[in-house]
Amino acid sequence: MLSRKALQITPSPTLSIDAKAKQLKNEGKDVIGFGAGEPDFDTPVHIKEAAINAINQGFTKYTPASGIPELKEAVCARFLRDNGLTYQPQQIVVSNGAKHSLDNVFSALLNQGDEVILPAPYWVSYPELVKLNEGIPVVIETQKEHNYKLKGTQLEKALSPRTKALVLNSPSNPTGQLYSREELEEIASVAIKNNIFIVSDEVYEKLIYGRSEHISIASLGEEIKKLTIIVNGASKTYAMTGWRIGYTASELNIATAMADIQSHNASNPNSIAQKAAYTALTGPQDCVQEMRLTFEKRRDYMLEYISHMPYLTCIEPQGAFYLFVNIGKTFSRKFRNIHIENGDHFAELLLDHYRVALVPGRGFGAPEYARLSYATSMDNIQAGLERLNSFLKELD
Ligand SMILES: *Cc1c(COP(=O)(O)O)cnc(C)c1O
């Protein structure tokens, strides 16, 4: 018999819709995927070369559990430059992707039954990672009027004696929304008053559009910095999803606990990828700017197109690479005499009849929505939106 933990886990819905679309593609079917959760660009050449050099120089052995010193120093330098935050290298833990970092955080913080507050819509893996570490996810529904962002008053209401932490994700996957300084201050003051940790997932920090500015909640003052564990990584910024490098910055005792946990369950992050990440963080950054501008053009195109489609509504994302679209108005309408029951059904009909893949919102705690990624070519975006539009026009 499997463990209760194993029995209650649901596989990542973003990965599974992607898998279905890829499978159809392999069968020779012309599928357009809006499901991607990763940049469609190749990893920049100078980063790849750093990895090739690492291999050729025999940098292929175990490293210190929490990462090589030069990479941890580079991470500290970036926190200082990008966020005005001072950390010592011992406060940094490099892991096998930000997902692994999050798992380490929950493993280091949670006792059985501890509550972790998750503002919905949330990234699909948060509730599962909390549960795998014996915690209880407490979901707070955010409001469209607040651009799907958590208010301090909402946080206050959700607190209980068992509340241990809040997960913040700005810019957000799936909504693309970014917290302003004032919004973060409101949340920070509640967190400080009630002594709860903030797990701040900032992996989309560098993918921000228009005039918006990313602010790390840890930068608002010493008190909130002590309570914050920042999670970041190379995947989204440098198109390095397959390399698996993420990292955290936190108080020393938390970092030490995570490093010790990691020394047993992973030994260390991949040695070659660490060298590549070092080059990514310290090398030229124009590749990031190029990718960001390409994402921005696609975002603008999609927003404009979708604003003319029937039934759908969408607020403007300021970051990441997703549009989070309300599809609720299509529910109970009919496609070729079939009642659309819910978001999953919508996604299934669209994939089966128009060969367009998107991710239904249920896994994000937002069943009336669907996530469309613009980490795909402009040609795909144009063709995919045309098909989506034709699908919607068939509804009655
Ligand atoms: C992609 C993603 C991650 C995980 O990134 P990896 O470093 O590839 O593990 C974490 N949080 C959010 C919100 C993401 O979208």
Task: Summarize this structure as a short list of keywords or feature phrases.
single chain; 396 residues; Aspartate Aminotransferase, domain 1; Aspartate Aminotransferase, domain 2; 7-stranded mixed β-sheet; 4-stranded antiparallel β-sheet; 43% helix; binds pyridoxal-5'-phosphate
Bound molecules: pyridoxal-5'-phosphate
Q: Pairing-aware structural class of the strands and helices?
A: alpha/beta
**How many angstroms separate the termini?**
48 Å
- CATH classification, class level of the largest domain: Alpha Beta
Helix content: 40-55%
> If strands are numbered along the chain, what order do they take across the biggest sheet?
2-8-7-6-5-3-4
- Please compute the radius of gyration using only Cα atoms: 21 Å
Secondary structure: number of strands: 15
Number of domains: 2
What string, H for helix and E for strand, traces the elements in order?
A: HHEHHEHEHEHEHEHEEHHHEEEEHEEEH
Q: Are there runs of 5+ residues with pLDDT below 50, and where?
A: none
CATH architecture level-2 label of the largest domain: 3-Layer(aba) Sandwich
Overall spatial form: globular
* CATH topology category name of the largest domain: Aspartate Aminotransferase, domain 2
